[in-house]
Amino acid sequence: MAINGKFRVSMEDVFPEGAFVVSEVEQVRDFDKSTPQKFVQQLDKESGLPMWAVSVLDADPGARKGDKTITVKVLDEVQPVPPEAVVVAGHEFRPVEFDGLTVTPYVDDRRNRVAYSLRARAMRAPPAKGGKPASASTETKPAGGSAEGKAVA
User: Fold this and answer.
1) What range defines the domain where residue 89 resides?
2) Do the domain assignments include residue 2?
3) Whose CB among 34, 60, 120, 139 lies 3.0–4.6 Å from 98's, allowing a Cys bridge?
4) Rounded CA separation 56/102 (Å)
């Protein structure tokens, strides 16, 4: 049997309703090699690539409360850059898709259940479905808290 513990999956398999970046991209600490005085970034055992972590919000309304925010580890030589934010109803969101996604099941001793570790080779913006880049927003709230916005030159 050719199962090595991890499975290739598609973005649609894991996040059928999409996902949103909710954190900065950070280096994953290698707890075996790091000391209190020296941070060492963890490398993927198979590829040797540095590991980066980003938290994402699962947009599936049926996802359990404790499973709404998931950490995805991205393998890349350089720090991945999250997609641009889009403005929807006056709020910024960072929709994201992952390429080369794998899932590794493991036993979560704290919850006494099977949990899943997600890894990806790249992160990118999903194909546009509306909205506009956050940097292109032209509305601001005037002083006094009025709901009306005005254009910024």
Assistant:
1) 7-151
2) no
3) 120
4) 15
